[in-house]
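Most newcomers find our protein records easier to grasp once they have seen one. Nothing more is needed to start thinking about how sequence determines fold. Here is such a record, shown just as it appears in the course material:
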Amino acid sequence: MTIFRQTFITMTALATLAFGADAALAQSDAPLPELPKPIENLVNEGAQIRYLGRDYGVDAWITVKNGREQYFYVLPDKKAFLMGVMFDETGKLVTVEQVSRLQEKGDDMLDILADDYSSAINQASEEDNLEFKSPSEQLFYDIENSNWIPFGAQGAPIMYAFIDPQCPHCHAMLDDLKTDYIDDGRVQLRIIPIGFRQDTRAQAAFLLAAPNPQERLFNFMGGDESALPARSDINQQGVQRNLALMQSWKFDVTPMIFYRSKAGDVKIVRGRPQDIPALVSDLGSRL
């Protein structure tokens, strides 16, 4: 995969955009264009975004989520956009020229996030207007629709867990599960990254956007601090949504584990589980 460097648009910049603040574009000092709604939705889910400038009358954007790059071109009337890459009348790839214009900025975030991308996480979509029989079912629906990262085999029984990247109890839980349960395909643990401090929120946001979050988190747990950089220029919106979900249900510690049992009940484990075999035995099969 070709590696690109562009200038980040942080959430602070996006906030000032709403008030008509000026910022440098690729070619001029014009105001930043308004984000198309689908791109804004990706940003809210934790995607990183950069503006590539305007060529042939259309604004270009790049987003990265789960290590996957996507390019968006917004039509002049702002009523539609295209996703893909742009060529000129001679067949030259305009998109490459756009990102090359910004290489001199020296920002390497997308280099890191786009490296060795294999596939994006596919999350099943469900109807918004659902009626729930109990608060526990509402809770589980909210958990399923949070911004999570899968650890373990597809098709294995599922657990969800809020974690803070620097939480030692979260590290211990992951160590407890890794070899005998996650690596062996007996459990899929879907971690929901949050951060109680600014630096851990930045690390959690990086984890959401990275193509290899499992490897990076375990490397970080092993002492490699560079595996999860706490960058101030990374969009934290996806992590903030996870944190808001956690706080809305009055949870205040990590790890917090959620799963559906064989009997169909929603179960919660607060903190590091003391009896992993019993917990795994109680897991229901994935639907």
User: Anything to note?
Assistant: The chain has ten helices and nine strands. The beta strands are 48-55, 58-65, 68-74, 81-83, 149-151, 158-163, 188-193, 256-260, 266-270.
